[in-house]
Design brief:
The protein is built from 4 helices and no strands. The protein is an all-alpha fold. The chain has a domain of 39 residues: Histone, subunit A. The chain is elongated, with a radius of gyration of 29 Å. The termini are far apart. The model has no long low-confidence stretch (mean pLDDT 84). This is Histone H2B. One of its GO terms (cellular component) is nucleus. It comes from Acropora pruinosa. InterPro entries: H2A/H2B/H3 (IPR007125), Histone-fold (IPR009072), Histone_H2B (IPR000558).
Amino acid sequence: MAPKVAAAKKGEKRVGKAKSGTAETAKRRRGKRKESYAIYIYKVLKQVHPDTGISSKAMGIMNSFVNDIFERIAVESSRLSLYNKKATISSREIQTAIRL
């Protein structure tokens, strides 16, 4: 049989873990971060047109555009390094890839 637990008397302090807001937030996991060029696009926009804003849809389009151009340059520069039998992509391959 299980032992009986005495009821807490008036004025007695209970011993246990205190719940706090910071302990609960520390247990929560953050979602996986999505990399984006949004902050950089926004900074350049403010340099060029300080009084102009950008919508989230337009930012998504610009982010896709930057990713696409980056991938095209990377593929072309890697192709150039293979043609020249080099294992490393240097600034010269990237400059030539941009010209093409």
